[in-house]
């Protein structure tokens, strides 16, 4: 089944012939009075609506197990929950700011060390110590859109008995399916493309590993950061249009990138594969498209604030993946938890702007960017 079909048809045959699944809001479920058995017992452990969503999540990634959390960060935290005192996780320096915050401020209290690596692409056997238990990867990286070779990281990490966890938020299973490349765990902020309308906070994990699946089910039950039934239902519905939305968002982003590259008043445009031919080749070998996020800097002589004030369509807001275009300044917004040095190491300048292309008409978005660039000349 192609992913466009799986997004719509994974769940079928509902009561009364309904063509969309029912929503079960019950927080608790009756058990058999003699055996005390029951398919469901209490909503935090599992519930029919979240279970349906988790079936869809697993189907999209071609995974055995899917898990839905109350946010992308709850999913990221759960993905690292198998690490114990003395363990170390390797991460790229340009990892999502919230992940950086969790690794920097929370993991040390649990005796777990996060080691940030400037360029995961340059990782070698020497970077692994006996304590290295996991490598956490974002490819394309946020907001630099640098690419990491997933097959290479899997080979290296598995040689050292370390897990590979991939944050696939920017790609979604429509464009990149890391489990098929040997990755152990995929996390996503479903708040972004999966939900797609900037109106829902959610996170997901998928894996084929039964032992890890047990740990993630425990994280749901013991820590409780699970997705509620109504939001699970809304996400099931939103996912049906994910392939369609992303196709349009990506086409818009490609047109915007091509246009910005023709303008002398735009200094640098980052897009997956743009860093080097090598990264372009790697990305093409592990993903089926660049996605719909780009980042750029204005040339000298242009005023960033005037540019942003003149922009009509993209909202100046964190997040991405919505049907509406969004623009933000990572240094002060998504990546403000990082120290200035960490940002500099990651290549995130104070002037870098990140644009998430929505589904609007591309010509309207380009005309808007053009008029804002004209208005920004000092
Ligand atoms: C790449 C990436 N991972 C994880 C997250 C965290 O997700 P959430 O905001 O749903 O907790 C975000 C949010 O911006 C993100 O961009």
Topology:
Blueprint: H1 3-9, H2 48-61, E1 65-69, H3 72-79, E2 88-92, H4 97-106, E3 113-117, E4 132-138, H5 150-159, E5 163-167, H6 172-175, E6 185-189, E7 203-207, H7 210-223, H8 229-239, H9 242-260, E8 266-270, H10 277-286, E9 293-298, H11 304-310, E10 315-316, E11 326-328, H12 340-346, E12 353-356, H13 362-375
Bound molecules: pyridoxal-5'-phosphate.
Residues 71-73, 76, 96, 98, 138, 142, 167, 169, 189, 191, 201, 203, 319 line the site of pyridoxal-5'-phosphate.
What are the key terms here?
5-stranded mixed β-sheet, Aspartate Aminotransferase, domain 2, 378 residues, 7-stranded mixed β-sheet, binds pyridoxal-5'-phosphate, single chain, Aspartate Aminotransferase, domain 1, alpha/beta
Shape verdict:
globular
**What order do the helices and strands follow?**
HHEHEHEEHEHEEHHHEHEHEEHEH
The CATH topology of the largest domain, please? Aspartate Aminotransferase, domain 2
Q: What summary fits the major beta sheet?
A: 7 strands, mixed
CATH architecture of the largest domain: 3-Layer(aba) Sandwich
Rg, rounded, reads: 21 Å
Write out the strand line-up for the largest beta sheet, numbering strands in chain order.
Answer: 1-7-6-5-4-2-3
Count structural domains. Answer: 2
Distance between the termini: 54 Å
What are the segments in which pLDDT stays under 50 over at least 5 consecutive residues? none
The overall pLDDT average reads: 96
CATH class assignment of the largest domain:
Alpha Beta
Structural class call reads: alpha/beta
Ions, cofactors and other bound molecules? pyridoxal-5'-phosphate
Question: What's the name of the CATH homologous superfamily of the largest domain?
Answer: Type I PLP-dependent aspartate aminotransferase-like (Major domain)
